[in-house]
Amino acid sequence: ENIFDRSRMAPKTPIKNEPIDLSKQKGCTPERNPITPVKIIDRPQPDPWTPTANLKILVSAASPDMRDREKKKELFRPIENSEQSDTPDSLQYDIVDDSTVDEFEKQRPSRKQKSLGLLCQKFLARYPNYPLSTEKTTISLDEVASILGVERRRIYDIVNVLESLHLVSRVAKNQYCWHGRHNLSQTLKMLQEAGELQYGELMTSQHKDQDLEYKFGERKKETIPDSEDRPLLDFSEPDCSSATANSRKDKSLRIMSQKFVMLFLVSKTKIVTLDIAAKILIEETQDTVDHSKFKTKVRRLYDIANVLTSLGLIKKVHVTEERGRKPAFKWIGPVEFPEKTDELRGHSPTSDPLPGTQRGASVQYQTSVTGKQRFTRHASFNSAQPCEATRRKVSSEPNSPRQEKQDENCSKMINLAAVCRQKIEEDTGNSNTTLPLSLLPVPRDSDFCVNPLPQAVFPVVQADVPSFSLPVGISSQASHPSMPAASKTENGKPTLIPNQPFLCFPSSSLFMLCGGLQENNLSELLPTAADLGNRHAEAQAAVPPTVCQKRSSHKCSSPSAPVDDEEPAVKKQTLEHSFLPLSLVVPKNPSESPKAESSPGSGCSAAVHLETDRFDLASPAAPEAANKESIKPLDCQDQEKQSESKDPDEPPPGNEHISKENANQPFQPQYLYVQPTAGLSSVNFLFSANQPPGAISLAANQMPSLSVPCVMVPSAALASFPLVCSPSFTSSLSPAPDGSFSAAASTNFSMSSLASTTPVFISTTAIVTPKVSPTPSVDPQQPPHPALHLSPVLTRSCSAVKLDSPVCMGHPVTLLKLQQPSSAPLTPKSIRPAHHEAFFKTPGSLGDPVAWKKNEGNQTRNASSVQRRLEISSTSPD
DNA sequence: CACTCCCGCCAATTA
DNA sequence: TAATTGGCGGGAGTG
């Protein structure tokens, strides 16, 4: 009801009997006072107050009961359906009201008065739709239950649905955090996308609902489980989830709710009949569905529908078909989301007139900046929370900031990945190509990270554009809400992102990821960087829109995370050997730096690890991410050595440290070049091995977030491209015009090693396209850019990515092997180990092996990816 | 009678 | 073991 205007928010309030305890509303905005007789109808009525309204008000004032009545009416009326009208309705509505009003007997609490819908309204009335970000409103189940005069059970029903839409998130036992609708659109967008993947075909293929039905029958099998069971939107971490995963927890209401919403979003008509929804939602095959199950499902759908209705997202209608009239619900919530995901999806980029990147970016940017809350950064996003399991465990503690970051990071990373991927495809022209990384957020996978990222968000780089760069989120957004500046993408120009360490070279499908060297500084830098970035961006025009943040850590992981380092390490190694044929190129500086010392091999391994591992992991999030500060050099020997000279352990105070280096010796970044292996055929990765301490770090715990400046180059590309990337990116990126940067820049080229391999150059300096005017120098002091961290998330995303990412749809993507513990072939099937399956299964799916298999196409792949995820998680624990 | 969907048992999970 | 969560379905209101 209140959805649209907050101004009107106040409403309903007083619940019938109970005295409300305002105190409990911790965060509530002051404004809300009770009572507005709101009648809002679906239609946006600018001015709520109609003559009738006044009347109503009076009435309500007079008696609470009356008020209730009114509410009910309001609530239900719209539902009552009618096909719809727009304005007229309201009028009628009012009229009707009056007439009918009397009928309602007030006293006895009719069933309706106890309806979930009404209850939900009351519930919602207590919290602002758009709470100030500053205030965190916590919801105590007990309190609410008592206030609303209902049993807790009912509150769960409401909260679960709200949680599925991320309007609230569970913080701890009995405690939920109210986020409001800030992220609703993002969530919906995600759902829509996810829905398209899952049900899209259905919908598209047939327009009619009826058809859908039929199709469903067939399709149901296919649609399966994996995705289904897990909360699509929950951006939880996969890993975690896997562990506990299946329990009923994530099973029903939440997921059902999301699926239900997805159906609406996917449906052209925006109308979904209950029975169809029920059928679709029933995991089992349709045929098997026993009636009882169906009935149960329907019951649940009503529950959900009531809540959604209260949220103003749907309304009840009836559709008449041959068979008669069937109950149905119509989506009345937002339909269009800011960006179309499609762009990402695959549509040929080329066709895009604008440089997608920019465009998308800009959009996103705006979005984020503006009203919507940056999905990325918004705290509320946290809701995204890590997998439930995890969450719950942690439940006692309120969301840690970390989580937030992670989420954000995840999303950013994903975006980035998506971009890259797309880019690759574009450049390559070959969609089929297997990409080493599939960064795209897959809906299924999305569980983990995906937040809100609307794919659309990703800026897609257009072919025309020479290069694009993605800014990686810098520090956690939290710290910088203002990231926006960075995001502008003004033109497609090259690449540098102010904050962002990643560079992608469009041209040859090369992607460069450049990390600012020092993470440490990031935090500090960011702000500055951002500013600079803006300017810079403007000046240069190439601004990356997305906000990828630098790193992400999983909340799960804590720095101290228990996770065994070793295992991951082991895995990594294994992987290395088996999978990655790496050729490491370590360019050393001719210069003095001792760092160079590291042997390529070592470097490689380290680097590799980083990459690989993180693919999944759940491990502890690298703490580093969390703080910019602490990232230390990884285990890389190289670094260590390097660091030794400096102080390995100590993360240099960043700036100084850096400055020194720059001054004295240019950085010499080492890059690891990963040859395309079977799996990776299309892309090569270059990671710089020697970074200043800050640059690459593997967290000790495996969580390594990788903050590495790295370059990914498609193998093909290598041949042709000369790519230059400066690890120290800073200069280029950072806006700082000062010339500090210069030193570093020119210095290192270590062509030699690279040369052997390819024509690619990586230089310390950032040399990018011409456009980027390298502003000469950045302050050495300010390490302009945060190093890029591949957050676990990212990694994970990579690994996790399904073969078919939604985005890719058609293109099978190969997962990075890195993740795989074993050298097994990449094929999806082979990949999944039996035991994994177990994890994978959802209650529903479990039973039906056949179904499982059936899912071949996408499903299978998905499954595999999922499994993979699971696997990892499972293994590590072991 | 068909829809809705409230109610609350009771199992799974957590604390 | 106690408390939370939440699946589930009987069966009661409503129209």
UniProtKB/TrEMBL annotation:
<keyword id="KW-0539">Nucleus</keyword>
<feature type="compositionally biased region" description="Polar residues">
    <location>
        <begin position="857"/>
        <end position="878"/>
    </location>
</feature>
<keyword id="KW-0805">Transcription regulation</keyword>
<feature type="compositionally biased region" description="Basic and acidic residues">
    <location>
        <begin position="65"/>
        <end position="77"/>
    </location>
</feature>
<dbReference type="GO" id="GO:0010604">
    <property type="term" value="P:positive regulation of macromolecule metabolic process"/>
</dbReference>
<dbReference type="GO" id="GO:0000978">
    <property type="term" value="F:RNA polymerase II cis-regulatory region sequence-specific DNA binding"/>
</dbReference>
<feature type="compositionally biased region" description="Polar residues">
    <location>
        <begin position="81"/>
        <end position="90"/>
    </location>
</feature>
<feature type="region of interest" description="Disordered">
    <location>
        <begin position="543"/>
        <end position="606"/>
    </location>
</feature>
<dbReference type="GO" id="GO:0002040">
    <property type="term" value="P:sprouting angiogenesis"/>
</dbReference>
<dbReference type="InterPro" id="IPR036388">
    <property type="entry name" value="WH-like_DNA-bd_sf"/>
</dbReference>
<dbReference type="InterPro" id="IPR015633">
    <property type="entry name" value="E2F"/>
</dbReference>
<feature type="region of interest" description="Disordered">
    <location>
        <begin position="62"/>
        <end position="92"/>
    </location>
</feature>
<dbReference type="InterPro" id="IPR003316">
    <property type="entry name" value="E2F_WHTH_DNA-bd_dom"/>
</dbReference>
<keyword id="KW-0238">DNA-binding</keyword>
<dbReference type="GO" id="GO:0000981">
    <property type="term" value="F:DNA-binding transcription factor activity, RNA polymerase II-specific"/>
</dbReference>
<dbReference type="GO" id="GO:0090575">
    <property type="term" value="C:RNA polymerase II transcription regulator complex"/>
</dbReference>
<keyword id="KW-0131">Cell cycle</keyword>
<dbReference type="GO" id="GO:0045935">
    <property type="term" value="P:positive regulation of nucleobase-containing compound metabolic process"/>
</dbReference>
<feature type="region of interest" description="Disordered">
    <location>
        <begin position="842"/>
        <end position="878"/>
    </location>
</feature>
<feature type="region of interest" description="Disordered">
    <location>
        <begin position="1"/>
        <end position="49"/>
    </location>
</feature>
<feature type="compositionally biased region" description="Basic and acidic residues">
    <location>
        <begin position="638"/>
        <end position="649"/>
    </location>
</feature>
<feature type="domain" description="E2F/DP family winged-helix DNA-binding">
    <location>
        <begin position="248"/>
        <end position="333"/>
    </location>
</feature>
<feature type="region of interest" description="Disordered">
    <location>
        <begin position="340"/>
        <end position="409"/>
    </location>
</feature>
<keyword id="KW-0804">Transcription</keyword>
<keyword id="KW-0678">Repressor</keyword>
<feature type="region of interest" description="Disordered">
    <location>
        <begin position="621"/>
        <end position="662"/>
    </location>
</feature>
<dbReference type="GO" id="GO:0045892">
    <property type="term" value="P:negative regulation of DNA-templated transcription"/>
</dbReference>
<keyword id="KW-0010">Activator</keyword>
<comment type="similarity">
    <text>Belongs to the E2F/DP family.</text>
</comment>
<protein>
    <recommendedName>
        <fullName>Transcription factor E2F7</fullName>
    </recommendedName>
</protein>
<feature type="compositionally biased region" description="Polar residues">
    <location>
        <begin position="359"/>
        <end position="385"/>
    </location>
</feature>
<dbReference type="InterPro" id="IPR036390">
    <property type="entry name" value="WH_DNA-bd_sf"/>
</dbReference>
<feature type="domain" description="E2F/DP family winged-helix DNA-binding">
    <location>
        <begin position="111"/>
        <end position="180"/>
    </location>
</feature>
<dbReference type="Pfam" id="PF02319">
    <property type="entry name" value="WHD_E2F_TDP"/>
</dbReference>
